[in-house]
Structures are given as structure tokens and as C-alpha cells.
Amino acid sequence: IAVPTTAGTGSETTGVSVFDYEPLKAKTGIANRAIRPTLGIVDPENILTMPERVTAYSGFDVLCHAIESYTALPYTERGPAPENPKLRPAYQGSNPLSDVWSKHACYITAKYFKRAVKDPEDYEARQNMHLASAMAGVGFGNAGVHLCHGLSYSVSGLNREYRADHYPQEKKLIPHGLSVCITAPAVFAATADSSLERHAEIAELLGGKPVRKEDAGKALPDVLREYLHDLDVPDGLGALGYSDEDIPALVAGALPQKRVLCISPIDATAEPIAEIYANSMKNY
Predict the structure, then answer these.
(1) Of 280, 257, 265, which is closest to residue 28 (Cα–Cα)?
(2) How far is residue 58's CA from residue 63's CA, in Å, rounded to a whole number?
(3) Looking at residue 250, what is its pLDDT?
């Protein structure tokens, strides 16, 4: 039985467990259907005491879960297929069922995310972000996530001194949601050409105005920068203590994340990953 206390990871719906792999100074994960909870209890009263930064960074995790799963490599292109369906990996790539959950999670997030962060007494907003977290969990728990998450693990693991407000200060920490969203504008600028229509759909949902699909590569990163700026996210990897000199180490920590990189809609080798890190040093 899983009872989430943030909104959030969606762990109550997924077969994924994340841990620190200290020799590489990176987070990584195990994905298996056996880890999926039998029952998840999503009660918004359990998240009412979340501090403002926890609400923001866990909310960005929801948003990236939804966008990444919606823009992941389609399940029809993921391979090779195992001989027995029981041996299929937990992450299948974007698919029609996951699409429903992921896209609706984006819709809810667009409506309630900023409200939930800016007003801790807004019960309606917090309740709906908890629902969005679970919905995005169902979506990415089957489709998977890709580059924002794949690149996040070394961002967290190689942290030197950064300590986030509203988190315990005795330990250096880049919260998971922060490490994920900090590269999001650069990631979706890079992936837009793989599915212009899907990227444009999400840009419309989040920005609230029509977006032509040929403009998706600029529109979605721009609206994500707006969310990051409005919700006081530090200005890129540079604000977390990184510089261009750290890119080789960041890439080295990202490349082993095959569990998620295998469903990236673009080539997820060292050169494009390094370019995303470089383009994420400053977001505004």
C-alpha cells in the first residue's frame, strides 16, 4: 500500500524505485512490475503541509512526467520486442492509453500548478495537483520518461554545495524536481522536431493560446521558461553551481541511464546530451 505525501512522484502508480549509486555519484532507478504497489491511497490532506519549494519542485516533477511520456519514442518504434509479453520492460514508449493520462495531467497542471505554489491555503489547487500527480504516474508508469529525467540524475548526484530553501539545510541537496525541470527548455527544444504536433499541443495547454506546430520548437521551451521564472526556479545549471567544465562529468553520469534514454525520441548519445547541458546553464 502506497500513500503519497507529495504531489509528486506518482510512486503510488509505478513500478519504479530510484536510489543513489554512490560510486558514480548519480541517482539511478530500477523498473519492474513487481515493485508496483497493490493499492495507492491518494488523499490530498496528506500534502497540505508541503512547504512552498517542495510544492514547486514536486509539481515540476509532475509536469515533466506528463510531457516526457507524451513525447517519448512511440511504442511501435521501441525494440527489440521480447519473445514473451511477460518480459516487456516497464517503460513501453508513448502509447494511446498513456497519452490520455499524460495529456490530462498537463491540462490539470496548467490550471492549478501556479495556484498551488503561490497559495498554500488553496485546497482546490492542491487537491488537483495531487490528482495530476497520480494521473501523470499512470501515464509515465507505462510509457516512461526520457531526457529530462535521464539527465537529472547526475545533476543531483554531482552537487557540490547547493541547498534548496524549505528543505533540510544540514545536507546539500538538489531536489529531484529541480534537477529534472532545470533542463526542460533545452530538452524540448531538442526533441520538438521528433513530434511537432505533440509538442505544439502541450505548448497550447500550458500557455493557453494557439500554437502552430511549426513553432513548437520555440513555443514549448518558452512557455516552460515562463513557468520556471514565475515559480522562482534558479536560473539554470549555473545557479546550482555548475559550469561548462562540469559537462563531461554530467554526461558521464547521464549515459548509463539506459532505462529512460532508450525511449528518448532523439539520439541520446554523448554529443546531443552535452549540448542540452550547455544550453541549460542559463534559462532566462
Answers:
(1) 257
(2) 9
(3) 97
As a whole number of angstroms, the distance between CA 25 and CA 154 comes to: 7
pLDDT value, residue 30: 81
Q: How far apart are CA 41 and CA 172, in angstroms?
A: 31
pLDDT at 211 over 80: yes
Q: Which three cell numbers stand for residue 59?
A: 509539481
Number of H helices, E strands in the chain: 11, 2
Query: For residues 273 and 275, what is the distance between their CA atoms, to the nearest angstrom?
Result: 5
CA 258/CA 90 separation, integer angstroms: 13
Residue recorded with cell 557540490: 160
Burial class (CB in 10 A: 0-12, 13-18, 19+), 234: middle
Beta bridge partners of 18: 29
Among candidates 184, 194, 228, which has minimal Cα distance to 66?
A: 184
Sort strands 16-21 and 26-31 into parallel, antiparallel or unpaired: antiparallel
Residue keyed to cell 499541443: 201
Closest CA to 178 of 53, 50, 10: 53
The neighbour count for residue 269, using CB atoms within 10 Å, is: 12
DSSP string, 250-273: HHHHHTT-HHHHTT-SS--SHHHH
Residue 34's Cβ-count burial label (10 Å; 0-12, 13-18, 19+) is: exposed
Q: What is the pLDDT of residues 131-143, one digit of tens each?
A: 999 999 999 999 9
pLDDT of residue 219: 98
Give, for 28, the enclosing helix (H) or strand (E).
strand 26-31
**Model-wide pTM > 0.90:** yes
- Percent helix, strand and coil across the chain, each rounded to 5? 60, 5, 35
